[in-house]
Amino acid sequence: MKKLKIETRRGLRMAVGKRSFAGYSLNTCSYWVDGVIVDTGPRSLRAGFRAFLAAQPVEKVVLTHSHEDHCGNAVLFNEKGIPVYLHPGTVDRAAQPVRVPFYRWVFWRPRSPFKAEPLPGAIETARGKLIQVIPAPGHAPDHVAYLYPEEGVLFTGDLFVSTTTKLGMREEDYAAWMNTLAKLLEYDFDLICCGHAGMVPNGKEMLAKKLHKLQELKESILHLKEKGWSDREIERKLFPHTRKVELLSGGEWGSIHIVRALMNTGK
Fold first, then answer.
1. Cβ distance 65 to 102 under 8 Å?
2. Where are the beta strands (DSSP E) in 56-152?
3. Helix axes 174-184 and 255-263, enclosed angle (nearest 10)
4. pLDDT tens column, 159-209
5. Cβ–Cβ contacts within 10 Å for residue 158, how many?
């Protein structure tokens, strides 16, 4: 069993697991706060996450979205009768088996089917504190963020990851993503709990920086589009290096998806 990195801050506990393939590594994180688990980690790291999740008193589980690296161990809580909450639009789909591309199988494995309940507007912790549920589409249509005002914490799933966006998935909606980031910046928080980058201090500043860089990238792409450049020409200009995950994913990941999405957002 691969041991996870465990970190505690402001009463939150974080477990970080790592998967590597062909020289490329990815982290994924699960969080515990006052009886609530936020995301469960992937099935490929089940032994490690099972130990972390079993070590905490858990009353309920909330998921930021239904990708397998975030909900791969949700079924463990079904077995214990602990409720798992998910965006209402994905509840039925969560109970069905899924297939994933080869590279995602290597990194995460397909999630096990699990029973989920629709997210309410807020989640109550063991001490009666409230975690606010914020619809946050962009990375995925069913993505949500969770605000824990008690500690000034925002759980962002895959909305942050890094201030710089160099790779995107084919189905991502960058207009919605930028709107989501702008909306989240209206809330009061200073620590981000990211699904892959871990606990990020100065979280509001970092989230604002990501939005600013996306806005600059959009302007650059639209400027080149107006000059008659094609999407591939723009990609070669702004993202000159092919990254290993683009090849591993067979094109599901790539900078071309960012270019095409932002080309169609308008000014």
1. no
2. 60-62, 84-86, 117-118, 122-124, 130-135, 144-148
3. 80
4. 999 999 999 999 999 999 999 999 999 999 999 999 999 999 999 999 999
5. 24
pTM reported for the whole predicted model: 0.94
Convert 15-47 to b/e letters by CB count within 10 Å (16 or more is b).
bbbebeeeeeeebbbbbbbbbbbbbbbbbbbbe
Q: What is the CATH class of 5-263?
A: alpha beta
Query: CB of 106 within 8 A of CB of 86?
Result: no
Q: Give the count of beta carbons closer than 10 Å to the beta carbon of residue 59.
A: 14
Question: How do the domains of the chain map onto residue ranges?
Answer: 5-263
- What CA–CA distance (Å, rounded) separates 227 from 221? 10
Q: pLDDT by residue (tens digit) across 25-53?
A: 889 999 999 999 999 999 999 999 989 98
What dihedral do alpha carbons 151, 74, 156, 34 form, nearest 10°?
0
Q: Which residue has the tokens 């996306």?
A: 214
Question: How is residue 1 annotated by DSSP?
Answer: -
